[in-house]
User: Which sequence fits this backbone?
C-alpha cells in the first residue's frame, strides 16, 4: 500500500502538524505502509530529499496566494500520476485538500482529509469560494480525519455521517518527551544560556494569528511588572514572527525554528498556549509529557486533555487578564515539590498507538475492517509506551 500525504509545509519547517507527521510516518512505514509526502518548496530547500526515511517531494510555489496554491495543486497532479498512491491523505482543508480532490478525479482512490482544528472550518468559509469548496468537500471527501470531539461534533452538525469520520488522535513520544531531574534542568539551562534561578515560561509551535502570540506578548508585559526576572521563550516560526522579534530582549527570547523542542520544554517551568482555536495540540501533548505545568485557552481538544491532567490551568480565550493571572500563578510554583515533575499518566495516545491506528485507518478505507472508537463517540484510547509497541 502506498499513501500520499499532502501538507503545506514539512521538515525542516516545523509546526505541530509537521512534528506529528515526522514522529508518526517512520513508524507507519515500519508497519508496512509506504508513505510519500508532497509539500511546498520554500527558499533554500531541496526539491526532493528523504527525511527520516520518508520521501519528501517539495513542489514550486512561485508568488503569493492564489498563484502559489494553484502552482502547488497543479504541479502535484503529474507527480501523483507517476506515484500512483492507493490513498490520498491531506492535512488541512485548503490547498492540500483541493489538491487531493482534483487528483481523485483521475486516480480514483479514496481520500482522507485531516481537519487540524475547529476554527479551520470557519476559516475556509472566509476564503474566496470557501463556502462552495466546503460544500464540495463535505459531499466528496471520502473520510475526515478527526483529532478531537469538538471537530467530530462540528462535522456531524454539517451533515457528515459518523462512518465517514475517522477518530485518529494525535500521539506523543513519551520516551523522548519526559520529565527531567533538577540536575538535568540545571545543565540544560546552562547549555541554552538561560538564567539558573529565573522563572521561565515557554511557547512552542507555529507563530500564526490563531495561536494568540500577540495576546501572550501583551500579557507578558504585565507578568514582568510583577516578576521582572521572568523569561519567556518563543520557539517556532510563522507569519507572526516579525512581531515576536520586535519584543526580543531580556524578558522575551525569540528562539526561532529548532529541530527538537524537547530541551526548551525541559528547561522551562511553565508552558503557555493562548490559542483561539485548537484541534489536538501536539505542543500541548509534548509539554504535558515533559511534566510541565500549563496555562492554556479553553478551546478545542485542549479542554479534553485538561479533563485528565490536573497540571493544566484553563483560561478564557482572548482574556489578557486571565492569561496574565494564570501565568503568574504557574510561575509562582517553579519551586514546588517534585510531584510536578513526576512522569504524568497520559490519557492520550502515544505516538506508537497513533501510528497503529493510522495504518488501521488506511486499511479500512481500502475495504478493511472498521476502526474501534470510530465515529460519533471519538473514544480516545489511552495507552502506555509498553502497550503501544
Assistant:
Amino acid at each position: 500500500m502506498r499513501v500520499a500525504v499532502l501538507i503545506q509545509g514539512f521538515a525542516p519547517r516545523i509546526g505541530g502538524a509537521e512534528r506529528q507527521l515526522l514522529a508518526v510516518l517512520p513508524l507507519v512505514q515500519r508497519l508496512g505502509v509506504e508513505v510519500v509526502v508532497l509539500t511546498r518548496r520554500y527558499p533554500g530547500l531541496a526539491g526532493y530529499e528523504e527525511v527520516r526515511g520518508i520521501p519528501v517531494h517539495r513542489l514550486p510555489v512561485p508568488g503569493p496566494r492564489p498563484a502559489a496554491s494553484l502552482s502547488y495543486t497543479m504541479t502535484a497532479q503529474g507527480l501523483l500520476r507517476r506515484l500512483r498512491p492507493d490513498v490520498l491523505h491531506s492535512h488541512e482543508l485548503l490547498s492540500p485538500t483541493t489538491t487531493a480532490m482534483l487528483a481523485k478525479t483521475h486516480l480514483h482512490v479514496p481520500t482522507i482529509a485531516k481537519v487540524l482544528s475547529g476554527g479551520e472550518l470557519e476559516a475556509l468559509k472566509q476564503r474566496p469560494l470557501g463556502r462552495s469548496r466546503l460544500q464540495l468537500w463535505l459531499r466528496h471527501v471520502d473520510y475526515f480525519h478527526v483529532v478531537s470531539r469538538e471537530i467530530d461534533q462540528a462535522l456531524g452538525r454539517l451533515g457528515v455521517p459518523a462512518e465517514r469520520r475517522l477518530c485518529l488522535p494525535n500521539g506523543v513520544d513519551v520516551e523522548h518527551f519526559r520529565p527531567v531531574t533538577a540536575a538535568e534542568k540545571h545543565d540544560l539551562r546552562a547549555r541554552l544560556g538561560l538564567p539558573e534561578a529565573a522563572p521561565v515560561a515557554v511557547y512552542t509551535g507555529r507563530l500564526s494569528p490563531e495561536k494568540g502570540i500577540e495576546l501572550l506578548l501583551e500579557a507578558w508585559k504585565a507578568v514582568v511588572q510583577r516578576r521582572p526576572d521572568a523569561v519567556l521563550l518563543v520557539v517556532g516560526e510563522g507569519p507572526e514572527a516579525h512581531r515576536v522579534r520586535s519584543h526580543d530582549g531580556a524578558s522575551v527570547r525569540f528562539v526561532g525554528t529548532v529541530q527538537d523542542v524537547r530541551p526548551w520544554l525541559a528547561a522551562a517551568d511553565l508552558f503557555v498556549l493562548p490559542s483561539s482555536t485548537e484541534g489536538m495540540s501536539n505542543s500541548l501533548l509534548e509539554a504535558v509529557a515533559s511534566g510541565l505545568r500549563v496555562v492554556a485557552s479553553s478551546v478545542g481538544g485542549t479542554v479534553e486533555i485538561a479533563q485528565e491532567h490536573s497540571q493544566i490551568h484553563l483560561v478564557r480565550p482572548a482574556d489578557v487578564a486571565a492569561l496574565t493571572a494564570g501565568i503568574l500563578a504557574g510561575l509562582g510554583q517553579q519551586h514546588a515539590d517534585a510531584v510536578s515533575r513526576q512522569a504524568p499518566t497520559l490519557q492520550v495516545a502515544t505516538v506508537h498507538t497513533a501510528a497503529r491506528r493510522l495504518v488501521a485507518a488506511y486499511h479500512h478505507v481500502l475495504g478493511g475492517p472498521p476502526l474501534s472508537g470510530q465515529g460519533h463517540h471519538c473514544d480516545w484510547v489511552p495507552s502506555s509506551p509498553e502497550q503501544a509497541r
Q: What stands out?
A: The mean pLDDT is 88.
